[in-house]
Amino acid sequence: MGLNHVVFNADYREFFEIDDPQRMKFDEIQDVFGSSDNIMFLLVPTSQNVFTEEVFTAIHQLTERAWQIPHSYRVDSLTNYQYSWSVGDDLMVEDLLLDIDNLSFERLAWAKKAALSEPGLMGRLLNNEASVTAVNVLVNVRGKPASAEHNAVQYAYALSEELRREYPQVDVYLLGEVMANATFNELYVQDTTTLLPLMVLLILLLAMFALKSAVASIHILVVVIVSVTASIGLIGWLGGALTSPSSAAPIIIVTLAIADCVHLLTHYLRFRQEGMLNEDAIAKSVDRNAKAIFYTSLTTIIGFLSLNASDSPPFRNLGNFVALGVMMAFLFSVLLLPLLLIFFPCSPRGNLIQITWKAWIDMCHRNARSIVALTVMILLGSVYGLKENDFNDDWIAYFDESVSFRQAVDISEQHLSGTTTLEYVLTSQTRVTDPVYLRDVESFTQYLYSLPQTRHVFTFTDVLKRLNRNMNGDDPAEYLIPKNRELAAQYLLLYEMSLPFGLDVTNQINLDKTAMRIMVTFKNLSSTQLISLENEIAMHLNKVDSFDFFVTSPSSMFAHLSHNNIRSMLIGTVLAMILIAFVLMFALKSVKLGALSVIPNVLPAFVAFGVWGLWVSEINLGLSIVASITMGIVVDDTVHFLTHYQYAREAGNCNRVDALVRTLEESGHAIVLTTFILMMGFLVLASSDFIINANLGLLTAITLALALIGDLLVLPAILLLPKKRNTNATNLAT
Fold first, then answer.
1. Residues near 403 by Cβ (< 8 Å), separated by ≥ 6?
2. What is the pLDDT of residues 269-293, one digit of tens each?
3. Which of 30, 371, 526, 541 makes a 20 to 30 Å CA pair with 676?
4. Rounded to two decimals, what is the model's pTM?
5. Number of domains the chain is built from
């Protein structure tokens, strides 16, 4: 029943706390100037010419129909752009092309000339070559049920299909914040309906091959289904909502649940192969593994709970959801799986895959110093790769290039103004019609255009300069800020009175005429670059006395979140590492072994991020959590290794070499198999079109591979290091 209460929320605002300073500023802008959530139709004529009769008719038809999109409250396009001119002392304001049925060559040529001279259009709704245009639809779905946004999106999809059928000479693309949210949701459904079943199938086939038992694979499937269903059901009962990052939780839970089962089944099947009775094999397998599985589950839970250090709620939810799933997987692995084996026993068809470990441990023994030295060298070399990582977060890059939304954004980035934005609210000490204020705003606009990163500035001062020119006989020399407050107020009033319903200036000027919104678009910038630029602009604005200001935007929000999250997750990872070390010291009843266990688990993440720096050189918001979650996962094999090693030393009263051989003979097969299963699970996740999940899966898989090397090579070498420089070979093994 709890599954019925699970909802998916794709709103990008969910990445931020309600009281996050950046989100609060953004919400304030939305309250004052209206929602900036939009659906943008990008029109690319095959003729590469917007100003033709066919294309302009298509723009007009789309503009008219777009008003019918549910919850839309404003539509801006070339055809309804409010162009102004003067007739004597009268100000005329009309659509750029009012008579859509009379689109002569001369009329279109005039419209093209007029449009190319309008700063409010160029780089925003029309590119410089007049080969690409856009129709921007603002919608207000804040505070409304999820169905409101869904209905708007479905109408937009249907409208775009209609336009493609009616005007095949025009390519139509959809983008905007609303479409981004919709794409998040679509990718979640895609991952859930394709990747999850694929991963389960792949892992079950792998388990069947390794365990030589179809019945054992069916038992694994039952435990996995029950664990995931119980976990997601509890999330629903607790009122939790899945978001884009936390949507990876079911896939991760599946992977970890399978790993628990494999450890139990590997020992169970080996004992059965040795001739044990079914119940005895079950009991001995549980006895040998229950403690290790408990502590591996506990350390994994600690690793994922460390995500609560994140500044972003979806990542905290991911950690909490997976931690809950790990607990469910542990309970069902040690309780349900033995019951299944009692009622439905199984045995391998043929011999289990065996690995000869004696020669491997002898090699580690002979080369212990060299292996440790090489590990240190690799670790030092990873420092260079780590320095190559750029902490960048571009939410558009969360989508794979094959995703239609991403393709639309890339086309817009290439031809129009792009997606990296800042929104400035400039509050006047008096009124926005104050000439001093207007001149400072205009000066600020010119300053923004002087920056090499700037692509477009959307400011109402451009309209006021046009109105001043209109009211001075359309003299180009009068394209200036009005000379006094009275003129500015008069022009603004005349303009407002001439505007049709739905196309007023409230998206740029607040109702009491005390503040103006300036929207700036830049070329694609990293989070660090954007924050640096934001600070540079702030230093410039702090010198202006005529207005106060604040700045925000989705780009700025993600940049600050990414910057802060790196620091928060570093603290969370260190705390998790310390806590895991103490847990292992307690579990192993050895300070030495507990401290030693940290080494092969810290190094993989360190080296993995070094490799990532040399290969990709970019860590985004999603990757900032990898160190924390892998800390809890990779320690699992170390716990199983050291638990069996300790058992071998105590029960067998044998030397280090023999104890290591016995350890790997008992647990090595399961360690290799579970690591491979985990890698396959996360590599399936790496195929997601949602880049946060894809990179998370890929980097985690790399870390798991390195951790396996650490457990099977580095850890034995450390345990076999000579205690004294001159100790002979016999003593070395004791």
1. 183, 187, 689
2. 888 888 899 999 999 999 888 888 8
3. 371
4. 0.80
5. 1
